[in-house]
Specification:
Layout: E1 3-12, H1 19-37, E2 41-49, H2 53-61, H3 66-83, E3 90-93, H4 97-112, E4 116-126, E5 131-133, E6 151-160, H5 166-174, E7 179-181, H6 183-195, E8 201-202, E9 204-205, E10 213-214, E11 217-222, H7 224-229, H8 231-234, E12 261-265, H9 269-272, H10 275-283, E13 290-294, E14 297-299, H11 314-321, H12 323-331, E15 340-342, H13 344-372, H14 388-398, H15 402-423, H16 431-452, H17 457-468
Parallel strand pairs: 1-2, 1-12, 2-3, 7-13, 12-13, 14-15
Antiparallel strand pairs: 4-5, 4-6, 6-8, 9-11, 10-11
The chain binds 5'-O-[(L-methionyl)-sulphamoyl]adenosine (MSP).
Length: 482
């Protein structure tokens, strides 16, 4: 069985889940569900990033111990993904004791092998990014992502020999040994390597208490990104040992390593194609196969922010549209890999057009006509078939073209609608003639529902059950109009 290991970033708990996190997580779920349908052995990991200065400060602001604060927010992420029917196989929290132990071990080994050395960091740090910044990264002296001036830092620290991996990583990326998609993103990273290159990076902080202690010097804690990256390993039950980890340990899923696909947006691509693979090289572990970068959502042309009050929360989506419709709306909101502009108005319009008037109405009309005419259709769901529709869909899914895969299915639904309007089966008395019109349409609906499973798991199953029954009956209204 082919293996398919897919990850999302571990999200910071300084913020509650919003539609940006939702986009990545639902997209990962669509892929995980699709690969399961294709009979791959799938492991799907998501989780939360809970250490570091940003979380320490936020917890203090909320007058809570960082652990208690993290518990509350991590629970919100878990609840959001449950409400969206996300089928992750594990939810990794970086404050999980087994993760913390593994991080300590991993760092110790990198230290023992000479990849971590005592040094000093003198420079800039953006707490929003939790990243060291160079002047080149700033726009008018400000971090372009967080619009704040980074703090000046000067402290003793343990550095990771990132620079040592410059040539190897550049060659691997160029050869697509780590495939960065879309290709513009690869070009961007190659040009970063060629123009700026890798410098050693501080892997420890002296003044941050909320982190994994450095095993050989407890006066330091681990740099939050070094800690966070290792989630992709510990999420499979990795115990922190380089190279031959306990693959024989049955509780561990390390046989799933390395990730087939790591999904994220552009904000964290650079660290994922520099520090992260360098850590894996340092640990002697295989590298991820593909990193896919999707676009950023803006809301009515503006950045999503609490101060603008325009943040869309997954819970609000689900309340308004229901689980499956929310998944559909998020996945069709933008070309996957490109930025998108979203709004409640756009979601309402899309919901009414494609779901209430589109899929929902077609299913209701056709099932109603079948019931009225007492037809017994001989149709059955063709899964993994060789129909052109299946092939086209599979090709789009393989290229991460989720929005196009949905468009393909809706083309088919529209064709069915057109055939109905043309042939007007409701005006025909002869049941045999009606059957001749409805049979292929019902088969199409069933085929579309089969391919909708990754996107709308519950609705797809409902339609399949309805159209697979010997006697097809008009069911409940799938998508009440908004
Ligand atoms: N904790 C780090 C990741 C560590 S992974 C080892 C982090 N967390 S985050 O909470 O800021 O999540 C960033 C990710 O959330 C983005 O890469 C993207 O997947 C998703 N998104 C956050 N805002 C988004 C939009 N406005 N639009 C689309 N996706 C967005 O970075």
């Amino acid at each position: 069985m082919p293996k398919f290991y897919i990850t999302t970033p571990v999200y910071y708990v300084n913020d509650v889940p919003h539609i940006g996190h939702t986009y990545t997580t639902v997209a990962a779920d669509v892929l995980a569900r699709w690969r399961r349908l294709m009979k791959d052995e799938v492991f799907f990991l998501t989780g939360t990033d809970e250490h570091g200065a940003k979380i320490e400060n936020k917890a203090a602001e909320m007058k809570l111990a960082p652990q208690q604060y993290s518990d509350e927010i991590a629970a919100k992420f878990q609840k959001a993904w449950q409400e969206l029917n996300v089928s992750n196989d594990n939810f990794l929290r970086t404050t999980n004791p087994a993760h913390i132990r593994a991080v300590g071990k991993a760092l110790q080994q990198m230290h023992d092998r000479g990849d971590i050395y005592l040094g000093k960091y003198q420079g800039l740090y953006c707490r929003g990014c939790e990243q060291y910044k160079s002047e080149r990264d700033l726009v008018d002296g400000l971090c372009p992502d967080h619009k704040v001036a980074p703090e000046k830092m000067s402290e003793e620290c343990y550095n990771f020999k990132l620079s040592k991996y410059q040539e190897r990583l550049l060659a691997l990326i160029k050869k697509d040994q780590i495939k960065i998609l879309p290709v513009e993103r690869k070009n961007e990273i190659v040009s970063f390597y060629e123009k700026e290159g890798l410098e050693d990076v501080s892997f420890s902080r002296k003044n941050i208490k909320w982190g994994v202690p450095i095993p050989w010097d407890k006066s330091h804690t681990t740099y939050v990104w070094a800690d966070a990256f290792l989630n992709y390993l510990t999420g499979l039950g990795w115990d922190g040992k380089a190279k031959k980890s306990k693959i024989e340990n049955l509780k561990s899923k390390m046989f799933m390593w390395p990730p087939t696909v790591q999904l994220m947006s552009k904000d964290i691509l650079r660290v994922h194609t520099t520090i992260w693979p360098a850590m894996l090289l340092a640990l002697g572990l295989p590298l991820p196969k593909t990193i896919f970068v999707h676009g950023y959502f803006k809301i009515n042309g503006q950045k999503m922010s609490k101060s603008l009050g325009n943040v869309i929360a997954p819970g609000d989506l689900v309340k308004k549209y229901g689980t499956d419709a929310s998944r559909f709306l998020v996945m069709s909101a933008a070309v996957f890999g490109h930025d998108g502009d979203i709004s409640w108005e756009k979601f309402d319009d899309k919901y009414n057009a494609d779901l209430a008037n589109g899929l929902g109405n077609l299913v209701a009309r056709v099932s109603n006509l079948i019931e009225k005419n007492n037809l017994e259709l001989k149709i059955k769901l063709e899964v993994n078939g060789h129909l052109p529709l299946h092939k086209k869909y599979a090709a789009l899914m393989a290229e991460f073209k989720f929005d196009e895969a949905l468009k393909l299915l809706w083309q088919r639904l529209r064709q069915a609608d057109e055939t109905l309007s043309e042939k007007k089966p409701w005006a025909i008395k002869d049941a045999k003639a009606v059957e001749k019109i409805l049979q292929p349409i019902a088969q199409d609906i069933l085929n579309v529902a089969g391919l909708l499973k990754p996107f709308m798991p519950a609705i797809a199953e409902k339609i399949i059950a309805q159209f697979s029954a010997g006697q097809i009956k008009k069911g409940e209204n799938l998508f009440p109009r908004i």
